[in-house]
TrEMBL record:
Pfam family, one: Mab-21_C
Name this polypeptide is given: ITPRIP like 2
SMART domains, per the entry: Mab-21 (SM01265)
Positions of the Mab-21-like HhH/H2TH-like domain: 374-454
Family (UniProt): Belongs to the ITPRIP family.
Keyword Zinc: no
Location within or outside the cell: Membrane
Gene designation per UniProt: ITPRIPL2
Transmembrane regions: 12-30, 46-64
Keywords: Membrane, Signal, Transmembrane, Transmembrane helix
InterPro entries: ITPRIP-like, Mab-21_HhH/H2TH-like, MAB21L/cGLR
């Protein structure tokens, strides 16, 4: 995907002013060390022109910032939407709102390609060393090694918004899949739970993996009961019983994975001391572990950022699709009483189709006209979600973020693009506001059950033709509603909050836009709610 570089005035003007000031100081130091100062013919100090130039640059910078603040303060306000249509295009065609959107995007949303590139390269080097060390160490834990040991495959796969060109704000969070290698005597038989009778809809996106003998004969010629006896050490260490059959346990694999990462990190920590400080935070049984990368005091690089990298254990299904442990959040929040008898939560796996989604985005990019802004709209939609969380208490803000997750928002964009006859047509910069409005309206309709937000890859209705081959278990899976985990009341409150945020968008952009070091306007007291608002604030 093409990357556009623009001049960052927030950095350029202070840098030029500081450079000129340093030249003036250096000039005076060199003159003072050279002996008696020579007087200019008119008696003026020879360093005055440089000092005057620095002062003029500083004055120009101050005037530029004042102009920006005045423009943000006195742009015409957006009138309150009236009539029956909640998404009237009138405010988006109002003079000034496009300027607000562009300004907010540049100052608060857009990432520097330079900083993002350095961050991704740094993460790739550190994680690569850690994974290679983990592969060389072998398998600790219930099976110390040998033919039945679980191990790192030796590679890693970078996934998420940072690698799809729609991450916002700061490049300080990354997701990395760490594929695991199963023993040669073990094969998996994955099965989707979407068609499971009496199962809550929230669990329909989960999978279970039964153990089976590999299709080719084992080296020892074992089969049937003898194969089960041979695989008993592996089954006892990493499997649970589900309806009388051994299934690979996501909980046990995650526990082994975190222990193995700790041992591997101890191996490479000393070699990394000169470049950074690293630590590993276990995620327990509900989250994957997080690798924290802190800049070293002796690191004078241009991008000294603290980064958090989620390391996710993954089992390859084929064709670039993976099962991951634990299932991605939001983990189904339906009551466990709705969980069918005989199934166990420890055996639940999530599915990751990041490779297919990246191919789908590339397919859309190839068919998009030059200057298409659909990724920019996705970034602004994420920023709109963050603006909507302001003023909420911690519990409501967490629920708001779970419902409008980044993955759900990306799926909204893909669904809107794919349902059109010509993908990405009409998504040029001149219609940025209207395109953003279309995404918000579709999202609101999904929250109110007027549309269903299906997973873009799973099931017969997925975009399999555009993303290439898929494993059979994914092609035949039941379509997954990404919002099924949330009850109707929570979805209605989220839709009301989304509508309220959309209506107040110009005011929110003025209050929270602009350079980060300008004073921010606090939200009105009436907006600091203790939960989602029932309607207009």
């Amino acid at each position: 995907m093409s990357v556009h570089y623009t001049l960052n005035l927030r950095v350029f003007w202070p840098l030029v002013t500081g450079l000129c000031t340093a030249l003036v100081c250096l000039y005076h130091v060199l003159r003072g060390s050279g002996g008696a100062r020579a007087e200019a013919p008119d008696g003026a100090d020879g360093g005055f022109p440089l000092l005057k130039a620095a002062a003029l640059l500083l004055l120009g910078y101050v005037l530029l910032r004042c102009r920006h603040a005045v423009r943000q303060r006195f742009l015409p306000a957006s009138p309150r939407l009236g009539g029956h249509s909640a998404f009237s295009p009138r405010p988006l065609r109002e003079p000034g709102l496009s300027i607000l959107l562009e300004s907010y995007y540049e100052h608060e949303v857009r990432l520097s390609p330079h900083v993002l590139g350095h961050s991704k390269a740094h993460v790739s080097r550190i994680v690569g060393e850690l994974v290679r060390a983990g592969r060389a160490r072998g398998s600790p834990g219930p099976i110390p090694g040998g033919a039945l040991a679980l191990a790192f495959r030796g590679d890693f796969i970078q996934v998420g918004s940072a690698y799809e060109q729609h991450k916002i704000r700061r490049p300080d969070g990354f997701d990395v899949l760490v594929p695991l290698r199963l023993p040669p005597l073990v094969a998996l038989e994955p099965r989707s739970l979407g068609a499971e009778p009496a199962l809550a809809a929230a669990f329909s996106g989960c999978f279970v993996c039964a153990l089976k003998a590999p299709p080719s004969p084992s080296p020892s010629g074992a089969s049937g009961g003898h194969w089960l006896r041979e695989c008993k050490p592996f089954a006892d260490g990493f499997c649970v019983d589900v309806r009388g059959r051994r299934h690979l346990s996501a909980t046990l694999v995650l526990r082994w994975f975190q222990s193995h990462l700790q041992r591997s990190l101890a191996t490479v920590r000393y070699s990394l001391e000169g470049r950074c400080r690293v630590s590993l935070t276990p995620g327990g049984l509900e989250q994957p572990p997080t690798l924290h990368i802190l800049p070293c005091r002796t690191d004078y690089g241009c991008c000294r950022l603290s980064m958090a990298v989620r390391l996710i254990p993954a089992v390859h299904l084929g064709d670039g699709a993976f099962l991951v442990a634990p299932p991605p959040q939001p983990l189904p929040i339906g009551p466990l009483s709705e969980f069918p008898e005989g199934l166990r939560t420890e055996a639940l796996w999530g599915v990751n189709t990041a490779r297919q989604e990246q191919k789908l985005l590339s397919w859309l990019q190839e068919r998009a006209p030059p200057g298409a802004c659909y990724l920019k709209c996705l970034q602004l939609l994420k920023a709109l979600r963050d603006l909507g969380a302001r003023g909420l208490d911690s519990t409501a803000a967490t629920q708001w973020g779970r419902i409008l997750s980044s993955y759900a928002l990306k799926t909204v964009l893909l669904a809107v693009l794919l349902r059109k006859g010509s993908p990405a047509q009409g998504w040029d910069e001149a219609h940025l506001g209207e395109c953003l409005e279309e995404l918000v309206q579709f999202l609101r309709d999904c929250l109110l059950r007027r549309h269903t937000l299906f997973h873009c890859v799973l099931g017969p209705g997925g975009a399999a033709a555009e993303v290439g081959p898929l494993p059979k278990v994914l092609r035949e899976a039941t379509p997954v509603d990404l919002l099924a985990a949330f009850d109707g009341h929570s979805r209605e409150l989220a839709a009301a909050r989304l509508l309220s945020t959309w209506r107040r968008l110009p005011q929110l952009l003025r209050a929270y836009g602009g350079p980060r070091y300008l004073a921010r306007c606090p939200p009105p007291r009436s907006q600091r709610t203790q939960g989602f608002p029932e309607g207009e604030p």
